[in-house]
Every structure is written in structure tokens, then in C-alpha cells.
Amino acid sequence: MGLTSQETQDAKEAFAAIDKNGDGKLTANEITELFKSLNEAVPGFRIREMIAEVDTSGNGAVELGEFLTMFEKIRENKTTFQLADGAKNAKVVKEIGGTSDASAHGTKHSFSSEETASFASWINTTLNKDSELSSRLPMKEDGDGLFMAVHDGLLLCKLINSSVPDTVDERAINK
User: Fold this and answer.
1) How far apart are CA 129 and CA 111, in angstroms?
2) Whether this model's pTM surpasses 0.90
3) Closest to 82 in 3D by CA, of 65, 72, 70, 100
4) Are residues 136 and 155 in contact, defined by beta-carbon separation less than 8 angstroms?
5) Which residues contact residue 88 at a Cβ distance below 8 angstroms, ignoring those fewer than 6 apart?
6) How far is C-alpha 53 from the geometric centre of its chain's CA atoms?
7) 78-108 in b/e burial notation, b at 16+ Cβ within 10 A?
């Protein structure tokens, strides 16, 4: 169907307004700021998925032509962006009972697919340069990838130390 000339002009003006540094491409940070200005909390991994869907140049950013493609999909009310699917997934909350005999009676742990995917994405980004975790990262961002990666505590210790260095003495970690 395509955009009308007015819609194309509107999209170009929006692109210029969002492209704060004027380099002709929108980064994940600029798109995140756009969503924040619209009072939409969109996790970083969803932004990266949206970019990857239209990023034909492969530079990890959205150039004007790619932005027009994105804009056209939104205008045509297509829900190919996984962001739309994310809203559906966020409403699916899983519950499990306690994980040990001491905590199993009367306790429930709940989480959503959206939460686990966001957390897994954040861990992948935060710890991606740690050579001791190269066999575990990047972890799958869907399913039980997060739970499998943290099962023995190594990744959690590394995550704690990335936030507050030397909190966990790495000599005491079974690697």
C-alpha cells in the first residue's frame, strides 16, 4: 500500500526530531528515549528486535529508509514487530511452588516470559565480555535459558560483582 506523500513527510520530520545528534541514523538509545517520551516502557531487548527487523544495512541502527519501513508497518497496523507480541506475553504470569522442602509449603514464585526475557537480555549485554562465561553466554532469552544459566550460582556471583566489584571473592567460587 505504501505511505502517502504527507505521511512520508511526517515520518521524515519525526526522524529528524528523534535523531538528536544528526548523524542520519537512530540508535537503540534514541528509540528508547522516543518511547519514554510517549510514556511507553519498552525493554531494551524489544527495541533491539525492532531495529533488527528493519535494519537492512546491518549497522545496528535505523536509517531514514529503514525508519520509513518501520513507520509504514505501524501505519498499516501490522503487528510484525515483536513488541506487539510482548504485550500479550507480559500478561502470562507463571507460578511455581517453593523449590526446596523448606520453602515448598505455601509459597509461590511468579514471573512472566517478558521478565525473564528482559533479564536474560540484560545479563547477556552486561556480562558478554567475561571470558569465564563464554560457554554460558549468550543465553537463550526465551524458555528456560535464564534458569539453566544461573543454576549453579556462578553467573549470579559474576553479576553481583559487575554491580559492586569484589563483593564476592572470586577465589571462593567453584568455576
Assistant:
1) 27
2) no
3) 70
4) yes
5) none
6) 14
7) eeebebeebeeeeeeeeeeeeeeeeeeeeee
